[in-house]
Design brief:
heterodimer, A: mainly beta, 6-stranded mixed β-sheet, 11 strands, B: mainly beta
Amino acid sequence: EDQVTQSPEALRLQEGESSSLNCSYTVSGLRGLFWYRQDPGKGPEFLFTLYSAGEEKEKERLKATLTKKESFLHITAPKPEDSATYLCAVSDRGSTLGRLYFGRGTQLTVWP
Amino acid sequence: NAGVTQTPKFQVLKTGQSMTLQCAQDMNHEYMSWYRQDPGMGLRLIHYSVGAGITDQGEVPNGYNVSRSTTEDFPLRLLLAAPSQTSVYFCASSYSITGITGELFFGEGSRLTVL
């Protein structure tokens, strides 16, 4: 059973069309939830850390929010350069320090 | 700063061969780790290290060995390559040995094919 589930698997948006990506998790005790961006042929790049329900973080057109069971990555007025795969990961209090559980990602395509 | 450097970027092996994937970081990070990424699956932790001389197993350690003789380097050894080890391998490091921040710095990946 996956500890982290991301939806949708793929999302196509027209430039300027806002939307949200979902990350739900089932770990027993959340130490932290993390969002990464991955471009084709590259390693993941860190975006945000969220620690507790109600927390929000923003960076340019991206805004990440956290509830007790899920996180959303809101993309406002996306541009083609936002096209990438967005990965969600969690750190569980019951797991080895430093170990992250990654979701399978949402592949976002923004067309002009 | 170069960040996290992985070599080689591409490698083709025959079943039964052995090889080492190299990883070096120049950020003085104590924590280093190896992940593999397969189509349709999330990144999975192979091995990790919280400092020189200290290594431990992750989620999928079988068939792989690691060592950490210096802070900078964390090589991953494939002992007897199998087709199931065909994957993209990522090395990642962090300044936080507790991993609480979750901010991992990833290399660009090593793409391995085992025939």
